[in-house]
Amino acid sequence: MVKKFRIQISAYNYYTDFIIKSLDSQQEVENAIIDKLGKNDIKWESLGEMHDPRVNRITYEEVINGDANTSNRPLQKEEGTGPRMGAGAS
Predict the structure, then answer these.
(1) pLDDT tens, position by position, 10-48
(2) 22: burial class by Cβ within 10 Å (0-12, 13-18, 19+)?
(3) Cα four-point dihedral sign 69, 72, 75, 78
(4) Among candidates 72, 57, 60, 73, which has minimal Cα distance to 19?
(5) Distance in angstroms (rounded) separating the CA atoms of residues 74 and 18
(6) SS3 53
(7) Which of 14, 37, 45, 89 could form a disulfide with 85 if both were Cys (CB 3.0 to 4.6 A apart)?
């Protein structure tokens, strides 16, 4: 079954973050990362001087419900059931 994975790479004082689709096995994830890197359409951003350029990392995590855009909606939502009247209102 094909799954979505979020890939984050920090290397040589640069950082990138992208999504791949792959079968859930180490070899398949690695191959999908190599394919994405080979397309040269990844945007690399500088980490700045605060990060040690000698430390190189690649992390990944499965994207669950990746089509839901949570950044445009609040985590909590308050709903009312109609107009309310304060004390002393008639």
Answers:
(1) 887 788 999 999 998 999 999 999 999 888 888 888 876
(2) buried
(3) negative
(4) 60
(5) 23
(6) coil
(7) 89
